[in-house]
Amino acid sequence: MEKFGQHGYYRGKVVPLDRDNVDTDAIIPKQFLKSIKRTGFGENLFDEWRYLDQGEPGQDCSQRPLNPDFVLNQVRYQGATILLARNNFGCGSSREHAPWALQQYGLRALVAPSFADIFFNNCYKNGLLPVVLDEAIVAHCFEQAAAIPDYHLSIDLAAQHVIDADGTAYPFEITAFRKDCLLQGLDEIGLTLRHQDEIATYHSARQARHPWLAGGA
Amino acid sequence: MSSTQPRTLYDKLWDSHVVRVEDDGTAILYIDRHFLNEVSSPQAFEGLRLSGRRVWHAAAAVGVSDHNVPTTARAGGIADPISRLQVETLDANCDSNGILQFKMNDQRQGIEHVVGPEQGLSLPGMTIVCGDSHTSTHGAFGALAFGIGTSEVEHVLATQTLLQKKSRAMQIRVHGAIPNGCYAKDLVLALIGLIGTDGGTGYAIEFAGPTIAALSMEGRMTVCNMAIEAGARAGMVAVDETTIAYLRDRPYAPSGAAWDAALADWRDLHSDAGAVFDRVVEFDASTLVPQVSWGTSPEMVTTVDGTVPDPTAQPDPIKRAAQVRALQYMGLEGGTPIQQIALDKIFIGSCTNSRIEDLRAAAAVVRHYAARGQAHIAANIKLAMVVPGSGLVKAQAEREGLDQVFLDAGFEWRDAGCSMCMAMNADRLAPQERCASTSNRNFEGRQGAGGRTHLVSPAMAAAAAMAGHFADVRGVAPSHAARY
Hints:
- The structure holds two protein chains of two kinds.
- By secondary structure, chain A is α/β, with parallel strands linked by helices.
- Helix content of chain A is 33%, strand content 14%.
- Chain A has nine helices and seven strands.
- Chain A has helices at residues 24-27, 47-50, 97-105, 117-124, 135-147, 176-184, 188-193, 196-209, 211-214; strands spanning 9-16, 82-84, 109-112, 129-132, 152-156, 161-163, 169-171.
- In chain A, helix 3 links the parallel strand 2 and strand 3.
- The radius of gyration of chain A is 20 Å and the shape is globular.
- The model of chain A has no long low-confidence stretch (mean pLDDT 95).
- By secondary structure, chain B is an alpha/beta fold.
- Helix content of chain B is 32%, strand content 16%.
- Chain B has helices at residues 9-15, 42-50, 81-97, 112-118, 150-159, 184-195, 210-213, 217-225, 241-247, 256-266, 317-330, 356-371, 391-399, 402-408, 458-467, 473-476, and strands at 18-21, 27-30, 33-36, 61-64, 100-102, 127-130, 144-147, 161-164, 168-175, 203-208, 234-236, 279-284, 291-293, 301-303, 345-348, 383-386, 412-413, 434-437, 452-455.
């Protein structure tokens, strides 16, 4: 996995997506889930909101009509790498194509009052940092994003702070394990396999205690 | 926590699967059963290959293609080459790793969350995962079951474990008899309407109380299936005689001495008296009225005798904006009576409502209309389709003559798969088409770009097909005893 930022420090332009309950079907519609690859999803991020025509796999997206009302298409938010969102972002389907699409579009962090559980988990596996801040702070950031052209936020992952344009630092929570993985770009499977003897011991004991599981399928 | 303290069902399932815990609470959690579908697994197998890793315990995994498979003319294969490649990739990955699979033309094929329980592959006390959010369904068996992403699919394949932090525990206690004309679907939609689409975020939900105990396994699966629509990764129900009766003699359930040993173990799979939950919600099911979703989030539900809400009455500006946007997308105006909403298509199926009891409930409504002289679906219905959850559900329904009830009335009777719940195959809505659907998500574009989904029970969907608009099944099938 890619490391997050420069020694965990990252500064980026903010794009505000002002709606609750943005679901993963909206983030990446189902027709793009037929791919057996992990890449190529960025240009179909928010496809139904972003383009005026119907999206299908294999299109040349540079030729498609953009929806001028959609925030990601507005000139002032071009080059944004931090998405500001509302409650329950990423709800619905477990598709990891959603964080893949966000990441491949160029986003590095998401800031919202809450995220859906599966999506939240999936983000970390891809070096995309979901930050939960208090609803009032997020509301303030939305106001700033509307008022200040070229509004940027900084994220200091090591210190667990989001730093606002005026220097105010907002603390956020993250587990020590996830923080380490992001700071060092660690491979979770490799980390787990360091405990493979313990897993094997557990596995044998479990199958012995529950013989009906031993044959499995 | 010492073993003498009362524990929740979730505590018991969690504790029995922890291999080790790190200082920050991150646990290595052992996984007993891993279902694989064609959509979320190809990149996981590819990741294994690229890192030179092997499948840890192939016998724990079961593959079934369901999202992309056609529901008609299967013998001719899959026409869409991209869908076909995805299904063939799952076939090849299962074959080369020695993983049990129910292939597309196997009668046991179907929606993974229907097939697993039906085959006795989802058992009490298990941890069950799958790269699909509706894996919560299997929690109906007293299991800890939840959806995961593709990286986690790879993690389970490589290590037979997941890195997890324990969720908080919520119990939803339901009492009161479910009224005639209402079903498990109405119950869970009402619960989501009550606690909200993020009300269960961060929680594992146990559904309990006399009403849940009175539900069939099919009904419990419907309820647990939609726990994720309330934001909870896992929903679960304690093991009781209903669970055990369902599992007895299932193909992959234990038998003989192993069955007896399993029973002794399973009977402890309930929350102890006095177990403490982080949140408890009480609900009286006797107040239920058939539910219809009107918006683009499963929490946007009302009753069949109600009206579409008026956003100007909503004080919270963010919620008001969401309502306005939802009504615009849905092509509805605030104040419209639900029963005046006309429909274009009807979808009866999905991992929520495609089991035999669902099809029986829908067929009973169709028969009721036929007995009163209306033999055919309404003229404005362009397509009404019934998609059984598995080939075996389909066969069972045909033995009971349900297929003929549907076909005589003008419904299409299809082969098993996810179908128009998420429209990855050819079954989908055209822009602005309106559908009464027994599925689980009414998100924008879920059933096809621009399509408009209303979530309902199978009986309500059948009534909508016959009436051409939403109709109150309490008046249509009054004699139908709603036990699920």
